[in-house]
Amino acid sequence: MKKVLALLAVACVANTGLFAEEKPECLAEGDSVAAFYVTDVTGPAAGEKLCYRCRYGNRPVVSIFAREMNEEVAALVKEIDGVVGGNKEKKMAAFVVLLSDQPEAQNDKLKAVAEKQQIKETPLTTFDGAAGPAEYKIAKEADITVMMWVDGKVKVNETLKKDQLSKDKIATLKKSTDKILN
């Protein structure tokens, strides 16, 4: 019986190792953020392909990666936009990255959201590819990923399904900006 239990334990450990190799880990606190290119839809460089990670350098940054622009994501963006506007002296920045295999088809929707929500400080952008930038290891299961960094190092990385983005969660994410502002 002890041999059977020992074999089962070994099998479980071996399978856990295989699963861990198949599922890449998301960026963790302290990891560096890499450069990647987006197409700006509503920001100061509207119509251009650029690297906001590069442009914002070591500033405190919130980056919201979303697979769909819905009301909940728009509400989150509006809240973060308000935080950015209130922290200009700290040079805080933010940008939204809509992940899509058809990014050009999203432009009108992003422009409408920016106008309706009066988003002024946070460029809405698109990334060509639903998986997102490879270096960012966006979880396949996540509908929304909120990353916050300062000095090029991740301080917050939250992955959410769309039904998890409640008013309370938005308030919690807004409060999390303290981690990059202090």
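the 2nd protein, sequnce then structure:
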Amino acid sequence: MADALAPKKISSPRSKPVNSTQLPANGSIMSGKRGLIMGVANDHSIAWGIAKTAAAQGAKLAFTYQSDSFAKRVEPLANSVGASNLIECDVSDPNSIDLAFKTLKDDLGKLDFVVHAIAYSDKEELKGRYVDTSQENFLNTMNISCYSFTAVARRAAKMMNDGGSMVTLTYHGAQQVMPNYNVMGVAKAALEASVRYLAADLGPLGIRVNAISAGPMRTLAGSAVGSARQVYNHSREVAPLRRNVVLDDIGGAGLYLLSDLSGAVTGEVHYVDCGFKTIGMPPPNEDGNPQK
């Protein structure tokens, strides 16, 4: 009987990601839609995965950048999808946000969707204990990573006369403790709550608000988190699909949430993590001990 209950080796072949380029190369799902993409840092950015998929489906895009150093990396990407404008915007400065949206209105006239992919925290304070977080970094992290979405939503809503969609990015560290995530996890939890309250406020205007919670990816933002490589590898080993998320996965999910395909979906956190969040404890090793 004991042998019958002994842990058995679990066969776990890696699944292959569904490539969003399997969609029609020049599709029309987003035809006539005008959108703002905020937070692209380079061609590995999650926001870029959403942007290029939306553009391939007919969306007209504008991009923001934080500073000249980012502009140099974002400009060629924006040009590659025929973006109408590249606008400087520092979300920690209300005047900068106002100026960016004035420029955007002069350029696009109206807005159908916004992708908010902006977060920041002092990476030195993401190490060690959350209890040691400084007040200065706590407030700055909350302002840029959470409140900025509300500030953007308030201005964007005024340009969405025919309704629209807003999507921001979160992470599972908002729901459960993740190593070296600390105050960013607190900020993402607040961001997820903001999604629900914004959805309630803006729903009567036909504006939907949702978040994508992506699994670990090799991005510039992710590299700031200590033990990122270990988290990335662990997720791949225990997620039901036995692989990590790729940009095309996020692009497809973003397309769904930004388009009319999700016309009755709002206030949701949509997980794109290969099922990682569903696992309470990973399957044991062949010796019966938990995976490390």
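The beta strands are 34-38, 60-65, 85-88, 113-116, 164-170, 207-214, 269-272. The first helix runs from residue 2 to 5.
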